[in-house]
Amino acid sequence: xxxxxxxxxxxxxxxxxxxxxxxxxxxxxxxxxxxxxxxxxxxxxxxxxxxxxxxxxxxxxxxxxxxxxxxxxxxxxxxxxxxxxxxxxxxxxxxxxxxxxxxxxxxxxxxxxxxxxxxxxxxxxxxxxxxxxxxxxxxxxxxxxxxxxxxxxxxxxxxxxxxxxxxxxxxxxxxxxxxxxxxxxxxxxxxxxxxxxxxxxxxxxxxxxxxxxxxxxxxxxxxxxxxxxxxxxxxxxxxxxxxxxxxxxxxxxxxxxxxxxxxxxxxxxxxxxxxxxxxxxxxxxxxxxxxxxxxxxxxxxxxxxxxxxxxxxxxxxxxxxxxxxxxxxxxxxxxxxxxxxxxxxxxxxx
Length: 350
Prior knowledge:
Layout: H1 2-17, H2 22-42, H3 48-53, H4 57-95, H5 104-109, H6 111-114, H7 120-129, E1 131-135, H8 141-151, E2 155-159, H9 184-195, E3 200-204, H10 210-217, E4 222-225, H11 230-243, E5 247-253, E6 256-262, H12 271-274, H13 287-290, H14 296-313, E7 322-327, E8 332-337
């Protein structure tokens, strides 16, 4: 038997030196094994070759069974290893970021936009690449922020120094009872991320002041003004003009809202063209003083988001040069044309 085992080892070694495949080497050894079994079957007892082969037929059959089990075991291991490598390759492929601008989840999320002829894939890409700053996270800012997020605007900033209070919850839908006393920008951030985790949110918990306005506005393509203070609106107007940024401005009081787009760089008036001076004391009361119907900021704030989407994608006709006025109590809307003033103290030389 030792002689045959040495021959098998020699065949394996020669095959290795010749770089023969393992399957071919096993085939040669298999032929040797069959030759040994044949010799043991046909040669009579006492034959010199039979003695050289050593062992009985039963021993060789047992050895064959053991070797067959070993080969089969190795084949199973090879197959399992192949499956494991295939699964690992599939997992790595699944973890590889998509080569296109959108993941499969984003394509499904924005499907209703993509099928709109006025938006389409190009418009949705424009939304993803856009950056919008919302000034104020209150009644107007809340719905505007949520719809900008749902639409897939890639980077959304929000600046507000206030915190959520119980009286806000009647109309400021980005906030909830559990986040009372939380800064509004962080409450809004939580609401935005819950709607769309695929976008970037930048909250700024501070007042908008002259020393930061232009620096902040420079980081965004479009400004939405949802504040209720003439002084802050004037600051937004001046900073936006200095940087050539369009401003979508909304305002509400009691049952009435208004909406327009200020953009001197695009031929539209600025706020100072339409409202050159602050209103006289008592003529511009706040929501806290006059009250406001809860759904009104939802209507106007949603319109602000819609105008922002149109401005980014180029869809439809914007409110550039027009002001939309909405009377919720009587369910009426009207438009007035607004124009730049050559003698405007803010944008006259732009």
